[in-house]
Each structure stands twice: as structure tokens, then as C-alpha cells.
Design goal:
Elements: H1 2-13, H2 21-24, H3 27-67, H4 75-90, E1 95-99, E2 105-109, H5 115-123, H6 130-135, H7 140-144, H8 149-164, H9 172-185, H10 191-199, H11 201-210, H12 215-234, H13 237-248, H14 256-275, H15 295-327, H16 333-358, H17 376-383, H18 389-408, H19 416-433, H20 439-455, H21 458-469, H22 474-488, E3 503-507, E4 510-516, H23 526-529, H24 531-535, E5 538-544, E6 553-556, E7 569-575, H25 576-587, H26 595-612
Helix pairs in contact: 3-8, 3-9, 3-12, 3-14, 4-8, 4-16, 5-9, 8-9, 9-12, 10-11, 12-13, 12-14, 13-14, 13-21, 15-18, 15-19, 15-20, 15-22, 16-18, 17-19, 18-19, 19-20, 20-21, 20-22, 21-22
């Protein structure tokens, strides 16, 4: 009985948890939550303004072209916009080093092209890496050495001019760079803060509470900024938060940072909802049709998923070709931007006349609109069943080429919305072939397939479909996710941050590689092999299979007199071409040469190479 009474009294006593509520929400949690809210508000204001400005500018450009005497007027805004973007690119430009999946470093101009790869690179600048340790730069200071607010402003203007003047591309990927730069800029130390601290110490205390002390805190803020930016445009806050997390942590999902990304994303979503009277979704339909659940429908979806996967692989290869053609064959920035604009304009004019010839008045769709701008209106028309098979096929290939010309030449536009555009056109073709189904029954699942196969964000793809179109499309979206993941899981258009452990570039043309000691070198020293003189390379480390105690060990600044053993790995630093020669020489080594014989072989091969040159 006493135990029962005690339990009853405990029910009253433990009500004091309400009084202790602040203790459960400690300072380490309060700070990132508050920061996420602030980031959500600031990023929303900037991205929402950009979204409205781009739509206003593009609509006016389109009206100007529609009212003009000839479609050739399209070259006027395109070429003018290209010159302005080139000027913005050259003004206070910064080079961002981006590492691809093969460990190669690419030099990217900060405001050119799709912004997502730049955002990924900037996100990882504060993490400790081997090359940063070599150059003596580590932590958040590395990010502070790169532009923040100025980069966001220049990207804002470049994107507005590119898309407003009729350039082909999307907003979503571009605003990720704006979101990252703004969120990082809110925490960047500035002289004005230190000057204010001298006059009012409270400002200094607030700043010390506000600023991130380590890369993890900074990355949480950066991720929140990216999620908020995508949420403004997607109108799907949960999908936006997952999108930001998946893009940055494709190889290692992080749940902790997802919470703060979701806070910023929700703040941006609710503000967009207030200012747009509830029209938050990127694509909208007047009447939503529930898809069937029979096997015939899912079989068609599987086939559609295969086609979209193949299209994504084709698009990825085409993108690499366009970027190489523009950036390597045409290094002059002014000529490159003008060529891209002229190419886009030519495609638009050709499509205009083809559409007028094949389909009079384009069934309510302007031929120029199929190529120019973000393409959201064409997707909405397809969802409403207003796009024929002929229009869809023309739009698919024309938009693909025009988008790659715009982005590949350096125009500030994204590839995310175009990827949805491409899958929509493929689905529109399927809806014309397989009658009896509403177009949206193919188009909505097709968007999932494109986000998986082209952008490689499977969780965000499912959440986007469910948030915008409801749970009725969950099963079709899952089918498309599985098919796209199987056929195109490794062909994303965005180069990953996955690192190759066997070798990685420190800067363009200079790399470190791990070279397993061949059998021919066992028992010799680097002095015996005359390694430095023979290959013009530096051994900066030795990963020993076992040391004196029998355990594995990594030696830095290795002595040249160290005897190499079987299973050891040399960490070698030098020019890429020299490293390639080293690996080629190792492959041709005999099993047990004498050191002097090794020298003769290397000298002989070097002489032969010189004679060939």
C-alpha cells in the first residue's frame, strides 16, 4: 500500500520537469537552433528575392521577344547577358579547388556554372586534410580566406542576369552556393566587430557566443543555409533538408546536422508560404489524379525508369564534353560566354521555327519557352497534359543542349530543375504512347527517377514526391527509385567528394600517391635505388607493415637509409607525370634486380622517352 501511495505522490512530484525545461535545452543546443532560425530568415530573404526577380525578368524578356518582329531578337538579351556575366565573373573572382571522385583537383571560377559543386568544395574547406596540413592551413580559417557575402552578391547578380536574359538552366543548384556563402558570411570575423567590441564589451561577448569555434559548427551553419535556399524553391522543407545532407554526406549520412538543416528549411518554407499565399511548390497541378496499382502500370514505370537512367548517363557524358569544349578549347572568358549565349540563341531560334512548322502555335506553348529560362512553365503544361509527343521530344534534346551550352560556357545557372525537365519530357512521351493514363501518373514518378539517376539524392527524391504530391505517389516513386538506383547509381552529374586513398591531388598537377614497395626493392634503401635523382619525386612518408615491435606504423620524414620490406607502402609527392612514370617503371621491374641494374634500366627508359619526344 505504501508503494502505491509513493507512486501516486511521485506523479505530482515529477511535474517539476516543466520548471526544469530550460535545463534540458542546454546552451550547446540553444546556440545552433538560434543560428538556424537566423540563417533561415536571412537566406529566405535573399533567395526569395532572387526567385521573384528571375521570374519577373524572364517574363519581360519573353514578352519582348513575342512582341518583336523576328525570333532572331533572342540574340540581343542573350549576348548582352553573357557580356554582363563575364564582367561579373572577372570582377573580384576567386578560384575554388574542387576534388572529383578520381582525386583530381579542378580549378573552378567561383560564380560560373552550376553552383552546387562550388558549394560542396567550400563546405569541406574547413575539414582537416592532408594538403592543408602541408600548407599550414587548417580549420575555419581556411573558409574565411575565401569570399562569403561578396560571392553571394556576385552569384545573385550573375544568376539573375543569366536566367533573366533567357539563359537555359535552373535556380535550385545556383542558390545552394548563395545559401552556403551567406551562412558562412554571418560567422566570418570582421574588423567592424572588433572595433565595436572596444567600445561596447557586450558586443564582443555576443560575438564569442555566436561564432563557430570549430569546423563542425561552421558546417552545421553551412548545411542550414543550403537547406533553407533549396526549401524556398522546392516548397518541400523536409526534402530540402535531406537534399542538403545527402549532397554533402553522400558517403556518410549525418543525422545530427539534419535537425538544424530542417529548422532553417522550415523557417524559409513558412516565410515563403506567407508571402506567396500558399503557393510554395515548384510545380503545381489543378487536379491530382491517383495512380493505379495494377502490374501493367508498374511495368511501364520500370521501363520508364530504365529510359531515364540511360538518358542521365547520356546527359552526364554530354556535360563533360561541353565543359571540355568550352573551358579547354576556349580559355578567353569573354569569347567563352559569348559563344555559349550564341549557341543557346541559335538552338532557340531553330526550335521556334520547327515548332511553328510541326505544330501550329505550339499548342499554346511558345517555341522559345521550350529552350530559354528555367522551364518550369513547360513542366506545368506537361502535368496538365498540354505537351504532345513531338513537342516533348523537341524540348528534351533542345533544352539539354541549350542548358549545357549556358552552364558549360560559364553562365550562372543550375542543372537541378533541367534534370526534372528532362524526365518530364521523357514521361510525356510515354503518356502519349501508353494511352489511358494521365500524364502526371508518369511525370511525378519520373521526377523521382531523375533526382536519383542524375543528382543521386534518393531520400530527398522520395520526400519531394510525397511532400508535394501526397502519399498516393509513394509506391510509384519507390519503384522508380529502385530502377534508377540499379541502372544509374554511379553516374551523378555532380562529382563527389569521395577520396581515393591510393592517390590525391594537392593542387592541379601535383599529387601524393601510395606506392606499394615492389619485390625488386625489398632489402634496398632509397639511397640504393637513387630514388630522388632517378624520378624527381619526394618520399614524404613510409607506411610500414611492421616496426621494431611487430606492429604497423606510419613514418613521416622517412630516412633514406631505411631498409624497405615486403608490404611497406611509400607515400610519394610530386608532379603527376613523374608519378605516372614511376608507376610505369615499377610495372616493368624484374623480380630481383641489382640496384646498379635498376639504375641502368631507368636511365635507359628515360633516354628512350627523350628520343621519342
Amino acid at each position: 500500500m505504501k508503494l502505491i501511495l509513493k507512486s501516486l505522490t511521485d506523479t505530482v512530484k515529477y511535474l517539476n520537469i516543466v520548471r526544469n525545461l530550460p535545463d534540458y535545452f542546454d546552451e550547446e543546443e540553444r546556440r545552433p537552433v538560434f543560428q538556424s532560425v537566423v540563417i533561415g530568415v536571412v537566406v529566405w530573404a535573399i533567395v526569395f528575392s532572387l526567385k521573384e526577380a528571375v521570374h519577373w525578368a524572364f517574363e519581360n524578356t519573353l514578352h519582348f521577344l513575342e512582341d518583336g518582329p523576328t525570333p532572331f531578337l533572342v540574340f540581343v538579351p542573350l549576348l548582352t547577358g553573357a557580356l554582363i556575366v563575364a564582367a561579373i565573373t572577372k570582377s573580384r573572382s576567386a578560384v575554388i579547388h574542387y576534388r572529383d571522385g578520381d582525386g583530381h583537383v579542378h580549378e573552378l571560377l567561383d560564380v560560373e556554372g552550376d553552383g552546387l559543386e562550388r558549394a560542396i568544395s567550400l563546405y569541406y574547406t574547413s575539414e582537416s586534410t592532408f594538403e592543408q596540413a602541408l600548407t599550414g592551413q587548417e580549420g575555419v580559417e581556411v573558409r574565411w580566406n575565401l569570399p562569403t557575402f561578396t560571392l553571394a552578391l556576385r552569384k545573385f547578380l550573375a544568376t539573375l542576369v543569366t536566367l533573366g536574359s533567357g539563359g537555359s538552366g535552373g535556380l535550385e543548384a545556383s542558390v545552394t552556393l548563395i545559401g552556403e556563402s551567406v551562412s558562412a558570411g554571418l560567422f566570418k570575423p570582421r574588423q567592424i566587430v572588433y572595433d565595436a567590441d572596444k567600445r561596447m564589451s557586450i558586443i564582443g561577448r555576443l560575438w564569442r557566443w555566436w561564432r563557430p569555434d570549430n569546423p563542425d559548427d561552421l558546417q552545421t551553419a553551412q548545411l542550414s543555409g543550403i537547406a533553407a535556399a533549396v526549401s524556398v524553391l522546392f516548397g518541400a522543407p523536409f526534402a530540402a533538408a535531406f537534399f542538403a545532407t545527402e549532397v554533402m554526406y553522400r558517403q556518410r549520412p549525418i543525422v545530427e546536422k539534419l535537425v538544424y538543416s530542417l529548422i532553417s528549411s522550415l523557417v524559409a518554407f513558412f516565410l515563403t508560404d506567407i508571402f506567396t499565399d500558399g503557393h510554395t511548390a515548384i510545380f503545381e497541378v489543378e487536379s491530382l489524379f491517383v495512380p493505379p496499382s495494377n502490374w501493367q502500370y508498374f511495368a511501364i514505370l520500370a521501363l520508364l525508369g530504365v529510359v531515364i537512367s540511360l538518358m542521365s548517363i547520356y546527359f552526364g557524358r554530354l556535360r563533360a564534353s561541353f565543359e571540355h569544349a568550352f573551358h579547354h578549347r576556349q580559355p578567353n572568358i569573354w569569347q567563352r560566354h559569348l559563344m555559349g549565349a550564341a549557341f543557346t540563341g541559335t538552338v532557340a531560334v531553330i526550335v521556334y521555327y520547327v515548332v511553328e512548322y510541326l505544330v501550329p502555335r505550339g499548342h499554346g506553348i511558345n517555341g522559345l519557352e521550350l529552350v530559354l529560362g528555367p522551364g518550369e512553365s513547360v513542366v506545368n503544361a506537361a502535368l496538365a497534359g498540354e505537351v504532345t509527343m513531338a513537342i516533348a521530344l523537341i524540348a528534351l534534346f533542345a533544352k539539354m543542349i541549350a542548358t549545357l551550352a549556358t552552364v558549360g560556357s560559364g553562365g550562372s545557372a543550375g542543372l537541378l530543375v533541367p534534370s526534372l525537365f528532362f524526365s518530364t519530357m521523357v514521361a510525356a512521351v510515354f503518356s502519349s504512347i501508353f494511352e489511358g493514363y494521365q500524364p502526371m501518373m508518369f511525370i511525378i514518378p519520373a521526377m523521382t527517377a531523375s533526382l536519383v539517376s542524375i543528382v543521386n539524392v534518393p531520400l530527398a527524391a522520395i520526400l519531394f514526391t510525397v511532400e508535394v504530391y501526397g502519399t498516393a505517389y509513394m509506391m510509384p516513386a519507390l519503384v522508380m527509385l529502385v530502377v534508377a538506383s540499379v541502372f544509374a547509381h554511379d553516374h551523378t552529374i555532380y562529382r563527389t567528394q569521395r577520396e581515393k586513398h591510393s592517390g590525391r591531388q594537392i593542387m592541379p598537377g601535383v599529387s601524393t600517391r601510395r606506392i606499394p614497395v615492389p619485390a625488386a626493392w625489398v632489402g634496398h634503401t632509397l639511397i640504393d635505388l637513387n630514388f630522388r635523382n632517378q624520378f624527381d619525386l619526394n618520399v614524404i612518408g613510409l607506411m610500414e607493415r611492421r616496426d621494431e615491435s611487430g606492429l604497423p606504423r606510419i613514418r613521416l620524414n622517412t630516412s633514406s637509409a631505411t631498409i624497405l620490406e615486403s608490404g611497406d607502402i611509400l607515400v610519394v609527392l610530386g608532379r603527376d607525370e613523374k608519378l605516372d612514370q614511376l608507376e610505369q617503371t615499377i610495372r616493368t621491374l624484374p623480380l630481383n634486380p641489382r640496384p646498379e641494374q635498376f639504375d641502368d634500366d631507368v636511365n635507359h627508359s628515360s633516354i628512350a622517352e627523350d628520343e621519342e619526344e
